[in-house]
């Protein structure tokens, strides 16, 4: 039974590594080959960090944590390299996810200001900030390591291999910077995104009622928002399909935040307990399990932050058809009336609205579709009116 468990664990680790390699590579290739998708700079950076983790960190993690490689002995330099890669890639991945969340929120609430201020220089500065902060945390982990224990090799590399007072301080700082603060940011940002998407859904439901009575047209976003927010009529009840779409939007929000918590909460909780509790040292089966639960984030991120985007999926389908020499035929483009509330919410999350004209490659829409699209063009409540 023990041998079977070891084999299943080894195969699971290899499967996660291969999934991370393929999924991150696909997303990076699609973004780099499509000029209009290169605005997803931080998504591409996240996939690049996860790809580096799958190439360098996860194979070393398999050798370090699996009992199948118990006879492997590491030198001090090799252990330091493994700790460096572990802390650096984990920090870079989590900090990138936090910046993606803030970027999406800023795009939704201040879209015009975002288009002006979100430049290549700012994106590069964000990437540099991520790596500088990650390297500083890594250097803090390796300070005074190992601490005079006279050892020249180890059979298992862990940050607790050389105990010391600064190790406890490092784990606390590492947990606060790379888990507690990002969790607060992600939760607050996506709750704000859901609130705006919910208000937009209610406003979209009120558009057919307003279309019945002709009103003077106003091109001012501020005036439109004022008209809607100052109405004395109660908000219209959501139709069943809109209520279902709202529930799907909540499910999407729960999945994105829940995926982050499920992957990283056990990892940081285990290390905090191991560093604070007296007489306990990390290692063994528990550390292996929580480490690979955390590493699974490298394989899941390209799906949640890349392939969940409809634009990236469409470009991937075009690339696949071109690789297999299949005729493109008629492109499938969902109109606004065909898109569900869930898809609109995902467009909010993935910055997939107003920045890329995906209908350009489609057959020109019929007058009926144009009329439907005109009717559903509504301002997003919560946006700050800007010149």
Helices and strands, in order, run as: HHEHHHEHHHHHHH
Strand order, sheet with most strands: 1-2
Quaternary structure of the protein? single chain
Major sheet characteristics = 2 strands, antiparallel
Topology record:
Blueprint: H1 2-33, H2 41-65, E1 74-75, H3 76-109, H4 111-117, H5 120-142, E2 153-154, H6 165-212, H7 221-229, H8 240-276, H9 284-307, H10 310-323, H11 341-349, H12 367-375
Antiparallel strand pairs: 1-2
Short description:
The chain contains twelve helices and two strands.
Q: Can you describe this structure?
A:
Residues 23-305 form the G-protein coupled receptors family 1 profile domain. By secondary structure, the protein is mainly alpha-helical. It has helices at residues 2-33, 41-65, 76-109, 111-117, 120-142, 165-212, 221-229, 240-276, 284-307, 310-323, 341-349, 367-375; strands at residues 74-75, 153-154. It has a single domain (3-204, 245-322), classed as Rhopdopsin 7-helix transmembrane proteins (Up-down Bundle), CATH 1.20.1070.10. The protein has twelve helices and two strands, in the order H-H-E-H-H-H-E-H-H-H-H-H-H-H. A two-stranded antiparallel ribbon has the order 1-2. It is globular.
């Amino acid at each position: 039974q023990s041998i079977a468990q070891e084999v299943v664990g080894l195969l699971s680790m290899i499967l996660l590594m291969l999934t991370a390699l393929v999924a991150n590579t696909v997303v990076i290739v699609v973004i780099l080959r499509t000029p209009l998708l290169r605005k997803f700079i931080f998504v591409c950076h996240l996939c690049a960090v996860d790809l580096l983790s799958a190439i360098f960190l996860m194979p070393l993690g398999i050798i370090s944590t699996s009992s199948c490689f118990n006879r492997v002995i590491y030198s001090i330099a090799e252990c330091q390299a493994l700790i460096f890669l572990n802390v650096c890639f984990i920090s870079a991945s989590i900090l990138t996810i936090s910046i993606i969340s803030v970027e999406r929120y800023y795009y939704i609430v201040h879209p015009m200001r975002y288009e002006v201020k979100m430049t290549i220089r700012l994106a590069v500065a964000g990437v540099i900030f991520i790596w500088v902060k990650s390297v500083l945390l890594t250097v803090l982990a390796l300070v005074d390591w190992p601490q005079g224990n006279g050892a020249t090799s180890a059979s298992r590399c862990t940050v607790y291999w050389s105990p010391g007072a600064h190790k406890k301080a490092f784990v606390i700082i590492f947990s606060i910077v790379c888990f507690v603060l990002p969790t607060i940011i992600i939760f607050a940002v996506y709750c704000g995104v859901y609130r705006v998407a919910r208000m937009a859904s209610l406003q979209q439901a009120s558009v057919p009622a307003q279309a019945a009575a002709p009103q003077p047209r106003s091109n001012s976003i501020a005036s439109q928002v004022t008209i809607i927010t100052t109405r004395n009529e109660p908000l219209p009840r959501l139709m069943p399909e809109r209520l279902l779409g709202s529930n799907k939007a909540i499910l999407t929000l729960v999945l994105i935040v829940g995926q982050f918590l499920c992957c990283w909460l056990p990892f940081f909780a285990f290390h905090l307990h191991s560093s604070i509790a007296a007489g306990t040292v990390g290692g063994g089966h528990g550390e292996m399990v929580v480490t690979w639960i955390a590493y699974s984030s490298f394989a899941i991120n390209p799906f949640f932050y890349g392939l969940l985007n409809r634009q990236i999926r469409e470009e991937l389908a075009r690339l696949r058809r071109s690789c297999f020499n299949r005729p493109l035929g008629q492109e499938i483009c969902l109109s606004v009336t065909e898109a569900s509330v869930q898809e609109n919410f995902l467009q909010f999350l993935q910055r997939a609205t107003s920045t890329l004209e995906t209908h350009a490659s489609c057959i020109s829409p019929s007058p009926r579709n144009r009329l439907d699209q005109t009717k559903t063009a509504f301002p997003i409540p919560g946006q700050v009116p800007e010149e």
